[in-house]
Amino acid sequence: MPNVDRRRALGLLTAGAAGIAAAAAPDLWHAGPSRSASASGGHKGGHHGKGPAQPPDPGYAHGQPMQALHLPVRSLQDLSPTAPANAIALTIDDGPHPKYTPMMLDLLAAHGVKATFNMIGEQVVEQPKIVQRIVADGHQIADHTVTHPINLPRLDTARITREIGQAHDQIAQTTGVAPKFFRSPGGNWSQAVFDIAAQHKLICVDWKIDPRDWARPGISHITRTMLQAQPGDILLCHDGGGDRIQTIDALKTVLPQLKQRGLQFVAL
Predict the structure, then answer these.
(1) pTM score
(2) Is the pLDDT of residue 150 over 60?
């Protein structure tokens, strides 16, 4: 999606801004009976721990608490602990989609690539088996709001809180894994968005490489842009929001070529 004035609005943020850190295992937004034992580590009612065991964290930090050194995170150098020197992160937005997400998962598996899926809450509820497959295949999951409002920073505080918090819970309750990362639709950020994400113990993640594949600019354009990746870059592409065949076909070239250059794909 388009990235509207986010660089200008965020240029003066420092590492001391509110919400810069996120813990490794955030609680659910809801309290009470709906709390997921496997997502939060315990509760006072509900499922009594009978859900499946929580899978290991697929991120490069292997479950260590992570911290953002700048907001939003635009490269792996903006995160602590430090990623491998040759690491890049593929992030995939706007799913899950019933057709294109399984195709994306098959492609990632064929090339041995782990990625981070930024998922829309209402689609998580509609496609629970695909979301569970994302986790089972060893990918990272992240919050991308409930309804993908491109004007998120301009909404009132209560609506921003619902968009972030409810999506967090929909993901956690579907997978048994509470997300640790949040991406605002369109890369549109504000201090209110940072603060509310921090309340949910989410690290705000942006990107460095954007092929604008959401607009379907052609396989060659997507391929050429993504092949510009350098160590530390966070790459953006999409598995939802429309026909994603161009993205998938481009990645058939991009994934092996970036690996041949010695770059290592990591999940956040």
Answers:
(1) 0.83
(2) yes
